[in-house]
Structures are given as C-alpha cells and as structure tokens.
Design a protein that fits this description.
InterPro entries: LysR_HTH_N (IPR000847), LysR_subst-bd (IPR005119), WH-like_DNA-bd_sf (IPR036388), WH_DNA-bd_sf (IPR036390). The protein has a five-stranded mixed sheet, with helices on both faces. Strands 10-7-11 form a three-stranded antiparallel sheet. It is built from ten helices and twelve strands. It folds into three domains: about 80 residues, Orthogonal Bundle (Arc Repressor Mutant, subunit A), CATH 1.10.10; about 100 residues, Periplasmic binding protein-like II (D-Maltodextrin-Binding Protein, domain 2); about 100 residues, Periplasmic binding protein-like II (D-Maltodextrin-Binding Protein, domain 2). The chain is an alpha/beta fold and about 300 residues long. Strand 3, helix 5 and strand 4 form a beta-alpha-beta unit.
C-alpha cells in the first residue's frame, strides 16, 4: 500500500464518482479504478458499492475514510513540526508585539537571537492582541507579546511583567501637579485606544476614569500607542497609557503621572504554541523573562 493509493481512495470517497475523481487527480478513469481494486484486494475488503447509477461507501469504506483522513492530518502536523525543527538552522522566525510594549528590550532580543542563530531571518510585526492569537494558532508567527488574558487550548502564555498606568499630557498646554488632581480632568478631552481594536484595554481605561470619579470625553481614538502619544503632544487631548510607555519616552514636551492609588495593572504576556519546543523559541522566551526586571 502506497500513499498514492490512499490519495486516490480519498478522492473517490469525496466525489463518490470515479469520473469526477479522475479529473480531480488528473488521471484517466481506468487506472484509477485499477488502483482502487488493488487497494481493496490488499485490504481484503470492499470499500465502495458500485452500480450504474451511483457510487457509495461501504461500512468498511466509511471507517477507512475516517482513518485515512486522520493519517493525512498527522502527516501535515509532522511536516510542519519538521519544518520548525529545520528552522533552528535556517529559515524564518516571526515575532509579533503590541505597540504599547515596544521598548529597547525587543531590539536587544533580535540582536541576541541573531548572534545565536545567524542563518535565521528574524522578523518583527506590530499586531493587535486578537490578531496575534489567530496568527499564532495558524502558525503565521512563532512568538507573540500581548496585553490581556487569553483563552486558547493551543497557546501557552507566560507572564512577562505587570504594567501600571500613567496619565500623559502636554505640559505646555496643561498643568497637573499630582495624582490628587486627576478627578479634575473630567473637563478635559481624551485620546483613547479604539474600542473595536483593543476592547479589553479600552474597558480598563474606562474603569480607571470611573475610579477617579468621571467619564472621559473621548474625542479621538487610535489603534497605535505612538499615534495616541503624538496626538497628545499635538494638543488634541490627554490620555492614559501604560506606565511602560512613560519609562521609554524621552520627549521633553510630554509629562506623565503614574496612577498609584488605583490597584489596576495589566499582564503583559509572552505567547507561544504549546507544542513548540524549538531551541529558538526557548532562547527568545528565556531572554525576555530574564529581562522582565527592567520593566
């Protein structure tokens, strides 16, 4: 029994028509019928009931179809895994991150990985949390860095660090001397993350404002933390951003006040596929976890 026998069998089982199956396989019908007959002879079981009107699977054929499909799924999984192992030597390793956590640490990670795996092409993508989860499940990325909890049976999440929140404002246009003055911001206009783009994060920001006793006047929304900070700098309003942004921002026009009274933090997590045990992934995760103290 060869793989081609199984492929031919599946084609006939799916089409239930030898003519259509032969067209799908780009072979003529007589050789296809001969291959199926050989398979039935080897298995010593009839797989199809044939008559002039139609082709049907026998009970044995139905069982065989289910098992053969499972074999091909296993082969696909084995092929993907083999490719992953091969990428330890050469190939591509894709890392996604959300805009609000980008820092010099991610640049350092790429430099570190390039030294360890010189023949691998490392690529960085700025991607929202939701899209990262989909991409990882579909093996379109190898590692992600997200904010907010996830629920996926395929994904392993490891806490990188807990991030607080800070108010950011243009100090040429507004003055806030301390956290005590935050409730007075109810008259100010706010720039926030787009609700559809980052729903969990959007809700957290509303919770923060509620804690200080007001509902924010949101006049502009953006999908990127750098855009939000730039809009604040341009005088379109104030915002609440992760404290990690404050630590990595050197702009002299901007000021940040950390919200320490409210005990609300978000988890920044490193996500990988549960079955991914490649050396590159392990090296990348270990590097980031060892750097968590710098946040």
């Amino acid at each position: 029994m060869e793989l081609r026998h199984l492929k031919y069998f599946l084609a006939v089982a799916e089409e239930l028509n030898f003519t259509k199956a032969s067209e799908k396989l780009f072979i003529s019908q007589p050789p296809l019928s001969r291959q199926i007959a050989e398979l039935e002879e080897e298995l010593q079981a009839k797989l199809f009931i044939r008559n002039n009107k139609k082709v049907e699977l026998t009970e044995a054929g139905k069982y065989f179809e289910k098992e053969v499909k499972s074999i091909f799924q296993d082969l696909e999984r084995i092929s993907v895994k083999t490719k992953k192992i091969g990428e330890n030597v050469s190939g591509e390793f894709r890392i996604a991150y959300i805009s609000s956590i980008y820092s010099s640490t991610i640049s350092e990670l790429i430099k570190h990985l390039k030294l360890q795996f010189p023949y691998v092409s490392f690529k960085l993508f700025e991607v929202s949390t939701t899209k990262q989860i989909d991409a990882l499940e579909q093996s379109k990325i190898e590692l992600g860095i997200i904010r907010s909890p996830i629920q996926s049976p395929k994904i392993k999440a490891q806490l990188w660090f807990k991030d607080g929140f800070s108010v950011v404002y243009n100090k040429r246009l507004i003055r806030i001397d301390s956290e005590k003055e935050i409730p007075n911001l109810k008259e100010e206009t706010f720039v926030f993350f787009n609700k559809d783009y980052a729903p969990h994060y959007h809700e957290v920001l509303l919770e923060l404002c509620a804690f200080y006793g007001f509902t924010p006047k949101i006049i502009h929304e953006a999908n990127n933390i750098n855009s939000i900070v730039q809009l604040v700098k341009n005088g379109l309003g104030i915002s609440i951003v992760p404290s990690n942004i404050a630590k990595n921002n050197q702009d002299t026009e901007l000021a940040f006040i950390e919200l320490k009274k409210v005990n609300l933090k978000t988890d920044v997590s490193i996500i990988t596929l549960k079955e991914d045990d490649s050396e590159i992934t392990k090296t990348a995760v270990d590097f980031l976890l060892n750097k968590s103290g710098s946040h």
